[in-house]
What does this fold into?
Amino acid sequence: MNDGICLLQNKSVELCKEKMQRTAKKYADEDQIPKQKSPQRKGMMYEEKWGEIVSAWLFEDSKLRKKSRRTKKKIFRDLVELGFKGSYRTVCYFISEWENSHVEGKDKGFERLEHPPSDAQVDFGVMV
It folds into this structure.
């Protein structure tokens, strides 16, 4: 796969393979381990008080029945009454991110099946 990239850049295949081997060795020797990049959250929901307010509301609502919880529209209207100048879409994005990061025990509707490894019988017969 990387050979094709090297050939497009007019490099020889041997040079590319040497470079790939050095990179693999570097990671195998643990001289340089790639670090996870955590995205910096920015915007009015994170930099101002709005995100904390919405997080508190969502946490309170998570303890209530589903019918009794605030909707996204209701949260947006309440924020506007408090002086929020952002858009409805901004609130929706923040709520989606919050739900993805805070809902752990949610039933996903399926259960992962795992089977222990064992022997299997295979018939390589001939079909006529």
